[in-house]
Amino acid sequence: MKEKKLKNRHSMFSNIFFFVKLLFEISPGLVIGEFVWGILMHVPPRLIGVIGVKYIIDTVESGENLERIFVAVGIIALIVILSNAFTWVFREFFWNMERERVYYGLNKKLYAKARQLDEESYDNPDFYNNFILTIESSSDNIQNLLGLVRNYVGNIILLFSIGSVLLTIDPVCLVIILFFIGVFSPISKKIGNLQMERRIDNTKYHRRSDYFQRIFYLQDYCKEVRMNDISPLLIERYNDAAEDVVKNQRRYFKKIDSLYMIQESGIQIFGFMFVLPLYLGYCVLVKNSLSAGEFVAAFNGAFSIASSINFLTVWAVAIFSERGKMIEKYREFLKADFKIRDGEKNAEKGSPKEIKIENLSFTYEGNSEPTLKNISLTIKPYEKIALVGYNGAGKTTLTNLILRLYDPTEGRIVVDGEDIRNVTVDSHRDRFAAVFQDFQLFSCNVGENVALDKNYDRARVEAALDNSGFGKKLKSGTETELLREFDDEGVMLSGGESQKVAIARAFYKDCPYVILDEPSANLDPVAEYNLNRAMTEASDNKTVIFISHRLSTTVHADRIYVMEKGRIIESGSHEELMEQNGTYAYMFNLQAEKYKDKM
């Protein structure tokens, strides 16, 4: 696996080109503008320092018409003003807006890809780390990469333009510069690798510290944190996580800075501040091969070329190497494979058909023991099926497999005689309505939350909310915004009210099958009774599979399956299971006793 991953890796410049191409697809004007900005930022000032200064010194030295100096200065000033004007207009009126557009455009690609991935992908810590790193680094990658490309293009144009001038004056300067750059440039690759390793490690440590950030600002944890003495423990663990980040930075800081010091000392101090000036001084004072204007032009040109080559081969390579590795992760994520693939057929909604689960087993990645072990059962059309059992018995995993959020390790699930893997994923899931134990409300209006669609039927939404027992008065009806991410006056619902909105989704969706995972967990007994009655009435024409720990909700189920350690250990109606006097009867009587004690 590791060897395959290494073979599929791309070169640094391949990754840079890939990312620039992505940016160009979203905003061509931004990329072209960056190139022009880079050229104007680097070339005119340096050319002026070489050609302009040489022209002025040669004019003064020759004693010719000195008025030409004023003309030259005027032309230089005009070039500088026009360059700065373009840069200012581009940056202030275009760059900021387009950069945001590119940022959101790249994230849309990531979100679209994330939508396609299997739920199993999120169970893989390495994949999830890379996913977080990719999302968090999008803005950073855009800004840094655009700046790098801008400088890279500018320095390349500068290198060729001033290099051609310098070659006409004294080509030995180029030899000196290239020699020192060539000797020390391999260090830049090592620096880039270390910077990337540091970033990956930082992401892992930052995930830990971000966990505590969520605890202290999310409302979900508000009551527990304030009502108990957990804060000192959390602060202590936060301090440990923060210390890990600091230690990691310190560990890489020593290595990276030592390499930078060696690199800079060799190239800048010894090469460009000692050897190069010594050679130019020899040409002027001993050989008399350079005039005053040529000396200044050669020195300024050599320094400009040295700076450009230093940037292109040392700084840019080191930074591009780091950016390239980040972009490699971006590419890996966009090309990430998934196990759950479309079949060739489209599943029809229609009326409920028979569902057969045959010898089904499933093991989560990384686990040695299977969560489900050789499950077989048949669900007839229009049946109301209950799955019960202790936590960890495999109930939710079974429904996830029915919904094809995962594919089984062994066995198969058949609907109307067709293996669900033979139909497209979307058409299969579209025939199910599901209310999950860990349901989520979205920051949009009530109608959109129920229909899970921008376009919805208001009357059907209202009927679905009524069936779920949602009785809260909303000032704007189904148009009322929930949560406050996009509306400061958005409504915040209680746990029970939120669950009723989630349950209403099952009533709203036109489909033959309904799966309910703990549908009454946050409801009081009266609301639970009303929900069961409404669900029974509204689901006459549907097959319903529900999971519940409250066995009072299972009494009227057509068939109850009791699960334990990934197996079905009992099945039958409520009356049949009570007569068996097994696990179900024990659990039911235990709960019934609690209700009697309270009465």
Please characterize this protein's 3D structure:
By secondary structure, the chain is of the alpha/beta class. Helices cover 64% and strands 9% of the residues. The chain is built from 19 helices and 10 strands. The chain has helices spanning 2-7, 12-26, 28-62, 67-116, 125-136, 138-169, 172-184, 186-217, 222-227, 231-287, 292-334, 395-402, 425-429, 446-451, 458-468, 495-508, 525-538, 574-580, 583-598, and strands spanning 355-362, 372-379, 384-389, 410-415, 418-419, 432-435, 513-517, 543-547, 559-564, 567-572. The strands form 2 sheets. Strands 6-7-8-3-9-10 form a 6-stranded mixed sheet, sandwiched between helices. Strands 2-1-4-5 form a 4-stranded antiparallel sheet, with helices on one face. Helix 7 (172-184) runs parallel beside helix 11 and helix 15 (458-468) crosses helix 16 (495-508). It starts with a helix and ends with a helix. The model is unreliable at 1-7 (pLDDT under 50).
Please give the structural blueprint:
Blueprint: H1 2-7, H2 12-26, H3 28-62, H4 67-116, H5 125-136, H6 138-169, H7 172-184, H8 186-217, H9 222-227, H10 231-287, H11 292-334, E1 355-362, E2 372-379, E3 384-389, H12 395-402, E4 410-415, E5 418-419, H13 425-429, E6 432-435, H14 446-451, H15 458-468, H16 495-508, E7 513-517, H17 525-538, E8 543-547, E9 559-564, E10 567-572, H18 574-580, H19 583-598
Parallel strand pairs: 3-8, 3-9, 6-7, 7-8
Antiparallel strand pairs: 1-2, 1-4, 4-5, 9-10
Helix pairs in contact: 2-3, 2-11, 3-4, 3-6, 3-11, 4-6, 5-8, 5-11, 6-11, 7-10, 7-11, 8-10, 8-11, 10-11, 15-16
